[in-house]
Amino acid sequence: xxxxxxxxxxxxxxxxxxxxxxxxxxxxxxxxxxxxxxxxxxxxxxxxxxxxxxxxxxxxxxxxxxxxxxxxxxxxxxxxxxxxxxxxxxxxxxxxxxxxxxxxxxxxxxxxxxxxxxxxxxxxxxxxxxxxxxxxxxxxxxxxxxxxxxxxxxxxxxxxxxxxxxxxxxxxxxxxxxxxxxxxx
Length: 185
Fold this sequence. Notes:
By secondary structure, this protein is mainly alpha-helical. It is 78% helix and 0% strand. The chain has helices spanning 3-23, 27-50, 56-79, 85-107, 118-140, 146-175. Helix 1 (3-23) runs antiparallel to helix 2, helix 2 packs antiparallel against helix 5 (118-140) and helix 4 (85-107) packs parallel to helix 6. The termini are far apart. Mean pLDDT is 93; it is low at 181-185.
């Protein structure tokens, strides 16, 4: 267990705290917990890279901690009426489909190496910014005007595009298409 992994574990521990704060109406604490989780994500990555603390465990835990926090915040904000349900259902369904595809391919003896796609990284970034904007609006009783609306639609678009890209990659992997080709040919 490295220092970087312990910081990642902190992010897992923050999830129920952020959810509880949201459900208790403590938007200031929810925003603070979300902010601490975001900062700790950067810190654990920095520690892992610069102090040679990269590990297989960390490679799995880091994205899991990010997704758990995002999914929980999205679900609660949807429940509260702060995010549209279509977006919450789309985002959660995308993540569930990806996990299901990975499990199915593993069960079928064709494990897939999960490599984040550029569209997926953009999707995650927009979802994080959207959650932060909504939490900040709630915590500080303010509004960012059309920024929230724009982020909602951009998040929806990127979520669908990301799901489609992963589906195509998974189908290619499962069919064996292109596996015999070299990277440059």
